[in-house]
Amino acid sequence: MKRLKTVLVLFIALSLQYGVRAQSAVVSPPDTAMYGQNANTGNFEEIRGIKLYYEIYGQGEPLLMIHGNGGSISSFRYQIPYFSRKYKVIAVDSRAQGRSEDLQDSLSFEMMADDFSALLDKLHVDSCYVLGWSDGGINGLLLAIRHPGKVKKLAITGANLTPDSTAISGADYLGGMNYYDTLGKMPQTPEIIRNRKLVGLDCFEPHITREQLQTIQCPTLVIGGDHDIILPKHTLLIAEAIPGAYLWILPNSSHSTLIDYKDLFNKTVEDFFENSLRK
Asked: Which of 16, 46, 222, 269 has minimal Cβ neighbours within 10 Å of its Cβ?
């Protein structure tokens, strides 16, 4: 289905010319590693009443990767091999998704942000770089708000602050609500209950205020596609509210900026993590 923010799958003022886009959008061959199913590097941790699954790749400064709704570690199949050359990549299945278990009735972005903070504590990571996609971008914002010392730099793509048509394209917003209602009328198997909980997360959350964004202390790069289901004007609103944030809107790009432009995306985020940008 086409969820609120691609449920159940998925200018830093660069004035990108379409000729540059064509050059930068070179197709990278997918890595063959079993991301999300790698027994050699995968582990479970008992975190806040659930079992959280994660995989670690590479060495260096820690980099936490947080996927979108209904996704998994494999959502970063084009980012893990690139960033693990220089970073210690910590890729996590968010609660109730991928291989992470969650039998609780409730689900919120705040709960998930606290999960990631607790996991970093378990791994003895004081602070890290964070890359979040879609719901993972929301988690990244809340991690920086609720646990500011944990985030060195934050890069997010396709995040939103509110679950309504001021942030999300009308068709996708209505589609998500309709799908939530449809799931409620189906036989309530464990899978349907889990899926409805995830769809409901995007139908009714988040509720992040401008005042909360203004408390974010880490350098932040806010990314979106010009044809993202998150409205570009909403992405701009997020960047304007975070002190000193950088904004990057990719032309001819969907909600999947890190796939549509994987090579340019990886290089730009790496540059952001490694360099001091213009104030």
From this structure: 46
Q: Is there a domain that residue 188 lies in?
A: yes
For residues 12 and 224, give the distance between their C-alpha atoms in angstroms, rounded to a whole number. Answer: 11
Please give the Cα distance from 57 to 22 (Å, whole number). 30
Percent of the chain with pLDDT over 70: 87
Cα 277 from Cα 279, distance rounded (Å): 6
Share of the chain above pLDDT 90, in %: 83
Q: Does the pLDDT of residue 13 top 70, yes or no?
A: no
**Alpha carbons 92 and 26: distance in angstroms, whole number:** 27
Instruction: Specify if 232 maps to a domain.
Output: yes
How far apart (Å, rounded) are the C-alpha atoms in residues 265 and 259?
A: 8
Count structural domains, the chain.
1
Within 10 Å of residue 237's Cβ, how many Cβ atoms?
Answer: 18
* Cβ contacts of 258 within 8 Å, gap of 6 or more: 76, 78, 79, 133, 157, 265, 266
Q: Are 108 and 81 in contact (CB under 8 A)?
A: no
The model's pLDDT over 188-208, given as tens digits with 9 standing for 90+, comes to 999 999 999 999 999 999 999
Segments forming the whole domain that contains residue 49: 18-274
* Domain presence at residue 9: no
What is the amino acid identity at position 267?
K
What CATH number is given to the structural domain containing 159? Answer: 3.40.50.1820
